[in-house]
Amino acid sequence: MKHPPLRVLMISEHASPLALAGSTDAGGQNIYVDNIARQLAADGHHVDVLTRRDDPGLPAVVPFARGARVWHVDAGPPNQVPKEKLMDCMPDFAAKAWRMLRAQAPYDVIHANFFMSGWVGLQLRARLRAPLVTTFHALGLVRRAHQGAADEFPPARIAIEQQLVASSDRVIAECPQDRHDLQHLYGAVPRRIRLVPCGVDTQQFRPGARQEARQRLGLQHDEFIVLQLGRLVPRKGIDNVIQAMALVPAEVPARLVVVGGGSEQPDPAITPEIGRLQAVAASAGVAHRVTFVGRRGRDALRDWYVAADVFVTTPWYEPFGITPLEAMACGTPVIGSDVGGVRYTVQDGITGFLVPPKDPAAVAERLMTLQRQPLLARALGHAGVARVQAAFTWDHVARQLAGVYAQLQVARPERRERVRPRPSSGLLQAEAP
Fold first, then answer.
1. Burial state string for 244-262 with b = 16 or more CB within 10 A and e = fewer than 16
2. How many CB atoms lie within 10 A of CB 81?
3. What sign results for the dihedral spanned by CA atoms 368, 371, 375, 376?
4. CB within 8 Å of 200: residues ≥ 6 apart
5. What CA–CA distances, in Å, run from 133 to 41, 110, 161, 234, 264?
6. What is the set of domains in the chain, with CATH numbers?
7. In sequence order, which residues have a C-beta less than 8 Å from that of residue 205 and are 6 or more positions away?
8. How far apart, in whole angstroms, are the C-alpha atoms of residue 264 and residue 293?
9. pLDDT (tens digit, 9 = 90+) per residue, 30-48?
């Protein structure tokens, strides 16, 4: 159902829709913000996206679709900064954003993406007199549980997330596990949560001819191609897939292809995770079976999905995960960790297989099942296409979000919380009028 036109302010402090997905700090959130903004605009809404300027040559405002614009906010140095180090820039981001926006027509809703954007959203909400919707994309307590001391986000993240859960007008959960974590780890009130998943562009990602794709990519026509594609960071569990390849019998002509990294050529100096994974492959005796191809643009990814016999993604945890949907949209079966969003999107035995994280033997067993049963693999691929088209297209997702926004408009005018800085911590304290 289409909704009356709305003016939407999206905040995505580190993940610009203009950035290339797959580089160091670009990934699912960039894709989400880009596609949601474009689809909302296509449905007649006006969308402005606030993001931090990370290049001095970028214009202040960049139209990227009819009815959708990116606003670059000067906060911190105008270059790439790891997102773990950006929280100190957020007070300046909020102040500069207000100066840029105060002369604009009123917004109907603020949609913040990630906890730092949510912090900015809380600062702007009272001034813009618009309700705040927050999508976390990842939760600090979950990350800390899996990464421990390797988690480099500031400790204040947890308190900010707790404040956002308590104060946002609506919180978007991207999958049932996300909703469970919001309720049981953060005490979220169920009536404020709405379950709206991520999506996939089914015009860009669609089935095709496998051998033709392999020919374009220079892949062997008779190898069993296992694909891993996305950000190259330890939590994605690519080492788990490499170790699984060591358990695939030597007589099986199998190859793992790893797409991603910070450069078009696989360079461990630019992407240290490549060097670590190369060492894992060498230690496991399968360096000859593992090919790193480097980063590829979004317009080139379909060929890789179509060329593969199976897409494997075995993260330790995954708030949602867009790559399994992209693979399914291309008709490629998925082997995924039985965690988070992967558990939600991949239907075990129907569109692929779910396996425990950090279990190479389970991955290898499922790889051999698919290698030995090509008709089963094809059936799983067909079912994946049907599942994506039924529930995970971007137009479907954007209209669900527009429904959330519209419900908040019906509730207005209402008594709204006002927010003020808490001097001791820099967090926000809610104050009733």
1. bbbbbeeeeebbbbbbbbb
2. 17
3. positive
4. 322, 325, 326, 328, 329, 388, 392, 393, 394
5. 18, 6, 13, 31, 36
6. 7-199+393-431 (3.40.50.2000), 210-391 (3.40.50.2000)
7. 301, 302, 305, 326, 329, 330
8. 7
9. 999 999 999 999 999 999 9
pTM higher than the cut 0.85: yes
What digits encode the pLDDT tens for the residues 123-171? 999 999 999 999 999 999 998 888 887 888 999 999 999 999 999 999 9
Written as one string, the DSSP assignment of 292-357 is EEE---GGGHHHHHHH-SEEEE--S--S--SHHHHHHHTT--EEEESSHHHHHHS-BTTTEEEE-T
- Preceding amide of 413 cis, omega within 30: yes
Do 254 and 366 form a contact (C-beta atoms < 8 A)? no
HSE-CB of 414 using CA atoms within 13 angstroms: 11
C-alpha neighbours within 13 Å on the C-beta side of residue 121: 35
DSSP 173-194: ESSHHHHHHHHHHH---GGGEE
